[in-house]
Amino acid sequence: MSISIRPATTADVEAIHVLLGDYASEGQLLVRSTDEICEHLSNFVVAEREGAVRGCGSLEVFTEDLGEVRSLAVRPGEHGHGHGRLMVQELEIKARRLGLTRLMALTYVPGFFRKLGYRIVAMEALPEKVFGVCVTCPKFDHCDEIAMEKQLGSS
After folding, report:
1. Residues 22-50: what's their mean pLDDT?
2. Burial class of residue 71, CB neighbours in 10 A (0-12, 13-18, 19+)
3. Which of 11, 51, 55, 86 is the most buried (most CB within 10 A)?
């Protein structure tokens, strides 16, 4: 049962919305509307197996050197099969093609990102994220996510 990672299409919007909604209801991700997903659809990749979307993730660009792995989610019961790792690797390839030299992620599972070469950094080390996006987040004053960063080498 092979996993394929591909760019998301409009046919994937509802599956992405449901997947992200499940994690949002548990407080693990912020809610993203279908309109927002559509607006940023070109940033998304999906993990597909047996014709079904098993996971999603997106790449948000902040500056000419910094991007973020965002909205990374794998369907419950599908963890541990490589979906997340493969999606992050694909997003890293995309980031390098765009000319980004570093990627960040805010996460509740630092061990996952550590295995992929990310290191924990202080939130203050990412002012592009904190003052560009985080200030509007309802969790801004009590954020419990861990900031991680990876320096990207050449592809």
Report:
1. 90
2. buried
3. 55
Q: CA-CA distance, 7 to 56, in Å (whole number)?
A: 10
Contacts of 135 (CB under 8 A, 6+ apart): none
> What is this structure's pTM?
0.86
| pLDDT per position as a tens digit, 83-113 | 999 999 999 999 999 999 999 998 888 889 9
- Provide the residue ranges of all domains of the chain, joining segments of one domain with +: 4-151
Asked if the 4-151 domain carries CATH number 3.40.50.720, the reply is: no
Q: What is d(CA 89, CA 91) in angstroms, rounded to the nearest whole number?
A: 5
User: What are the tokens at 60?
Assistant: 């948000």
